[in-house]
Design a protein that fits this description.
Elements lengths: L1 H23 L3 H24 L7 H24 L3 H20 L6
Length: about 110
């Protein structure tokens, strides 16, 4: 699990660097979307740290929480699509893409 947490931390650090660069270049919208992606990695790291060693939790609880996120954000994407809310669509797609990357690197994904 340490390798996975390290991966998330690397993604967070890279995201923060990208945000700073984009803000410096005056690309506020792009920086906002980078913040969304970075936040997803931070949320997933927090969930992993909280559940990894909790009695009765562990990897299965982490995977379940990631699936809950996918369900909630997928519904939000569908709702944004119904309302032709382009900004929300892009945000929800960014969240789901970051979550897909997280789950692809989750140690239990290989099993």
């Amino acid at each position: 699990m340490d390798t996975f947490i390290q991966y998330l931390t690397e993604q967070i650090d890279a995201g923060k660097a990208e945000i700073a660069r984009l803000e410096e270049d005056g690309c506020r919208d792009d920086a906002d979307f980078a913040k969304v992606r970075t936040n997803i990695y931070e949320v997933c790291r927090t969930v992993t740290n909280a559940l990894a060693n909790r009695p009765g939790a562990g990897p299965e609880a982490i995977k379940k929480q990631f699936e809950n996120f996918r369900t909630i954000w997928g519904a939000a994407l569908a709702n944004a699509g119904k309302h032709d809310d382009a900004r929300s669509i892009v945000i929800e797609e960014a969240k789901l893409k970051a979550l897909a990357d997280v789950t692809a690197h989750f140690p239990e994904a290989a099993k």
